[in-house]
Design goal:
The mean pLDDT is about 85. This protein is flat. By secondary structure, it is mainly α.
Length: about 200
């Protein structure tokens, strides 16, 4: 590159990514020539959540490593802690597991790593909160025709709106009908339709 005479080199390039490069090439977000240069022998490694049998082995490896690095006596993993590690979804993959174990080794003052040292219940709650705060459109069933999907969505909106109006009206149907600006008979019919009677 930029030289005036050729140089003989013997190198091997190992590249890693968490993106689907074939899809990126198809979408013109990644150079096709570079993709073909790099994909001589692709190795696909599934995410940690898809190979839960590896979690305990990796955790023990990291425990040994950080005990050695931090000059701590060897630690063991309590069965309850191992179960928490196995059932956690690991969105951050192996790097998240590694950080979790390093923190646990630092926090453990005895000879056993317990679930409280892992701090995974907090992470699971945060992941659940993130899921709940995701776009409501992610949870909508859009299968079938446009008319079928529209009926389902409209029905769900109506049902939820009626439930909220009844709650705000403390169960008073006439008041809820006024709030919704619909006829009392229409509200009564909708309550039957959605099983809200």
């Amino acid at each position: 590159m930029g030289g005036t005479s050729p140089l003989q080199v013997d190198v091997r390039v190992v590249a890693a990514t968490n993106r689907n490069l074939k899809a990126a090439v198809a979408a013109r977000q990644y150079r096709e020539d570079l993709y073909f240069r790099l994909s001589v022998f692709p190795v696909t490694i599934p995410p940690l959540r898809e190979r839960s049998s590896d979690i305990a082995t990796l955790a023990r490896y990291f425990i040994e490593k950080y005990c050695r690095d931090l000059n701590k006596k060897p630690l063991i993993l309590a069965p309850a802690a191992e179960e928490e590690l196995r059932t956690y979804p690991w969105p951050g993959n192996v790097r998240e597991l590694q950080n979790c174990i390093e923190r646990s080794v630092i926090l453990t003052d005895g000879d056993t790593i317990h679930p409280r040292h892992l701090n995974l219940s907090f992470r699971a709650a945060a992941a659940q909160l993130a899921t709940e705060q995701a776009s409501p459109w992610d949870k909508i069933d859009l299968s079938g025709t446009l008319a079928e999907a529209s009926r389902r969505v409209n029905g769900e909106v109506e049902r939820r709106k009626i439930e909220r109006a009844l709650k705000d009206a403390a169960g008073n149907r006439a008041r809820a009908a006024d709030m919704l600006q619909v006829n009392f008979k229409v509200l009564t019919s909708k309550l039957r339709e959605y099983g809200l009677e």
